[in-house]
Amino acid sequence: MQSKDGTRSPVVVCGAGPVGLATAIELARHGVRTIVVERHPGTAIHPKARNINTRTMEIVRAWGTEAHAAMVALNLPDGWTSQIVYTSGLGGEEYGRMPTQGFSGTLPVGSISPERPILTSQDLFEPVFLATALRTGLVDVRFNLEVVAIDQCDGDVAVSVNDRTSGVSSVIGTEYVIAADGAASTIRDHVGIGLTGRAAIGHYVNVYFRADLDPWVAHRPAVMYWVANPDQRGVFQPLDGRGRWLCQISYDGTPAALARYDTDGCIGWIRDAIGDAALTPEVISIGTWTMNATVAERFRSNRVFLVGDAAQQMPPTGGFGVNTGIQSAHNLAWKLAHVLHGHADVSLLDTYDQERRPVAEYNTARSLDNARLVVDVAEAGQGRHPDGISPATAVARARRYGNFAGMELGYHYDNPTVTLDSTPPPTNTDPVMDYVPTARPGHRAPHFWIDDAEHQSVLDLFTTHFAVITTHQETWIAAARATAAELDITLDTPQLDRHSDAIRRTYGIEPGGAVLVRPDGHVAARWTAEPTNQAAELEDAVRRALCRP
Question: I want to staple 385 with a disulfide (CB 3.0 to 4.6 A). Which of 144, 344, 380, 434 is the partner?
Fold first, then answer.
């Protein structure tokens, strides 16, 4: 369908927040052009999201050194990411502290990933995403454009948009639409996808302010400081370790209660929560939000796909919202690109919902668990806990909050595109906290260093193509060449002979075995020992991974 104004793109991304921009970047890596439309005039001006976790930083790592360096430069200073502090107030009783490897990076550094998480704020990292997208030359970002209708017909999509500055309406023609337009997604409503789960669990005022809080925090730098006393419940979050702060104030959701939190009301709350009536915080902006734990009933409607908050909304306890969205975009982009390039059957797109919705459901449920743990501390601090436990006991029970390597890196996919072997999934003490590296099909291919001096990981070898990792190169290279020629694709066969021990140990294969890794870094197939017919089995696994009969 040709658009009314002559504009057309293979993919239109609706929403230029972090997930929408990440989707465009990932598609550009695969050579796919996009138009990104955003109803707001520019990138975020309120801090909003803070945490870019380890798995997402592995994705950012593939965007190039400029993007990666810009993100690392935004991280909180050393020492601010290693614990959560629970208090009655910043100047009052301290209930306890909890170490947080999920925010600081698992120790020893580099043991399970070449990356560490980043703690910053959305108003700072969103411009990095935008600049990265524009540098590709394949992303056209248009602000002040609001989507007013989606029309799917004749194997095509018409996206009707309205320019909020000029009032001019136009239509963009495209093959696929990706809805990254947030929790109140109009596109999700347009295509009739509902939500399941719990809505309106809590109501919060977000206050972005500047203040010197060093007298209360310098001796105990932390990711966040939870406050709970008989009159208050909320959290202080450092944005740069140098005076920029975000606080979240819990209220009952009524208009009357919200009306009390104008600038003066927020300043009063901050003073009371710190215990200093003379403090003069500079309030920069105030926002409100509602905590939901909901997931879309499906992530696809024909040629429309949901990502980010349009697909799931989860409590922010753990920072999994934006990260789940970006990781879903990473999953979708390679599949969409392979279909558009003619390398995969269109049925491959069905696996986006099959693979990512269960992850979104799990992450939403665990984030809600974290929120409940924080409520337990607050209720104990307010003397209202139903079990009568002390705040210190409640803090000790909250150890999962901030420690979630298993949840972050241990998720896996199980559908017909994955060639399963006979090995069972790894066992661990706590599937949320503990991560056991494994190259079992469906799992994220595990990290090991291939050049420690150059900080190069085996993960850096997983680009936009499938890759064959093996300790016995010659016959597998021949098999890969035959498969690539037969299917008209590129199959990478990196030379890793000097890393044979690391491959056998980390990837669980004997000499002559091999692992097939997808473009998103997940294992598509594994042969723990040398198969009888490498070429036939490799071609069969790649065909299965691309849904090609």
Answer: 380
Contact 470, 441 (CB under 8 A): no
Token pair for 231: 């009159």
Q: Give me the CATH number covering residue 453.
A: 3.40.30.120
Average pLDDT over residues 179-202: 96
pLDDT tens for each residue of 94-130 = 999 999 999 998 878 889 999 999 999 999 999 999 9
Write down the pLDDT at residue 393: 95
Residue 35 in any domain: the answer is yes
Question: Identity (one letter) of the amino acid at 237?
Answer: Q
Are both 470 and 350 inside the same structural domain? no
Q: Are 190 and 149 in contact (CB under 8 A)?
A: yes
**CATH number (domain holding residue 34):** 3.50.50.60
In a domain, 70, yes or no: yes
Which among 115, 106, 124, 121 has a CA at the least distance from the CA of 51?
A: 121
Share the mean pLDDT of the chain. 95
pLDDT digits (tens, 9 = 90+) for 372-394: 999 999 999 889 899 999 999 99
Please compute the mean of the pLDDT values over residues 43-58 and round it to a whole number. 95
- What tokens appear for 370 in the block? 């974290």
Angle, CA of 226, 230 and 232, to the nearest 5°: 45
Query: pTM of the prediction?
Result: 0.96
Per the structure, the complete domain to which residue 33 belongs is given by 8-76+116-196+293-364
**Residue closest to 470 by CA, chosen among 412, 389, 528, 546:** 528
Q: Rounded to whole angstroms, how far apart are CA atoms 43 and 144? A: 11
Q: What is the pLDDT of residue 4?
A: 60
| The two three-digit tokens of residue 6, written as one number | 């002559």
Is the pLDDT reported for residue 153 higher than 90? no
First to last CA, the chain: 29
Residue 3 has pLDDT above 60, yes or no: no
Query: Measured between alpha carbons, how far is 99 from 223 in angstroms, rounded to an integer?
Result: 10
Nearest alpha-carbon partner for 128 in 52, 55, 223, 200: 52
Instruction: Say whether both 40 and 139 belong to one domain.
Output: yes
Query: Is 341 within the bounds of a domain?
Result: yes
Which among 345, 364, 383 is the end of a domain?
A: 364
